[in-house]
Specification:
Length: 465
Amino acid sequence: MKIYNTLTRSKEDFVPLEPGKVRMYVCGPTVYDFIHIGNTRPMIFFDSVRRYLEYKGYEVNFVSNFTDVDDKIIKRALADGVEASVISQRFTEECIKDMEGMRVRPATTHPKATEEIDGMIEMIQVLIDKGYAYEVNGTVYYRVKRFKRYGELSGKNLDDLISGNRALLVTGEDEKENPGDFVLWKPKKEGEPYWESPWGQGRPGWHIECSVMSKKYLGEQIDIHGGGEDLIFPHHENEIAQSEAVSGKPFARYWMHNAFLNIDNKKMSKSLGNSLKVRDIAARHDLKVLRFFMLSAHYRSPLNYSEDLMEAAKNGLERIENGLVRLRDEAEKCPQGLAEGSPVVQAVQGFCSRFEGAMEDDFNTADAISVLFELIKYANTLKPEETAREDWDALRQTALELGDILGIGEPKAELLDEAIEALITERQEARKAKNFGRADEIRNQLAAQGILLEDTKDGVKWKRA
Ligand code: AMP
Ligand code: ZN
């Protein structure tokens, strides 16, 4: 398997640190609002990376954090007049709902920055003790000049960085030894969340979070570290400087970065007013369509979002899903029978190896999707009377197994209108009988199928989401 490594700027063979096991860390979102669709590209892509590694038989320990202490969270909390933790808890929960909608499986561990502060203080202290960090007036800075390989991941030259940063220095930063130094711990400001530390009350900088959480849940060395390409500098450069200064060992073996998602060919940004939330998409599409759309391009190519492209993704996904339903129906209809030496079984092996070939070439999900299309197209050319049960089983099992890596499966059977109305009547009766537990259960069951209920004075109205 080949992976493009940002660190070496080349595709390399994947060899895990420990045979049969993969340790991977992906930087998660800052939870100050509903997530936007840009955030979903790393979530969806790395979920498929994980699924593929598991399909290959690796035991994957997958860690992805929630950044739940940050300037943006504090700003929003002040604006809403609530504690920062209210904002971060709310949007962590909302993010998890969106992930479910996109069929992104929960990570092995989802650590939260605010629950790992002790580890951060400990690591900062080690950095100070080793001469990699220093404290001035309650702020602790990382001394970039002390770390010889600083700039290796991003290909930046430290001297250029220093002169560039000198021009960008803001008030208060003149206390730094060097303009390139970055913050590990900052003193508290009025109204902000804070923790006690040897350097006074304050909170950690963003970069130290990931070094600490990755070390705690995965160990000093990991196989894959991922995130969007905007994180290469400074975030991942700083993570390397922190982690390697502490352990003295290479931190991550493969650095993987997804390219950006743009909207209507423009960079998504709040100031342009074109930032799209996943919730906005969910109002128009099943989020599995967003997932399919994200995987329809190679992760290192920029991807453009538009409603037309989403429509095309919807049609493409439907074609595969309809194909899966047909495979199931044919498999059920076809009388039991052996397909010894069958060309179908051989063809299935061909699809399988082409799908794997695409994924093993730096996770080319776009080509992997094409193989699924070909499989479905091929199945459509088969005549039931010339095939055996085993042919259909082989096609179906393979399509489901490969589809699952991309998060594609048989569509849920749609509830018929009569069935919905019968459930609504049952819910009304349950409510009359004060059996609110059952009533809620029915509402949730319908919601899971995308049926929304509205209690009006003229009775219950329903619609499909
Ligand atoms: P943030 O919440 O900004 O820290 O971002 C969380 C993750 O989403 C990071 O891996 C970012 O690199 C990634 N990300 C943010 N915006 C985009 C975008 N427009 N396209 C692709 N990835 C993005
Ligand atoms: Zn990170």
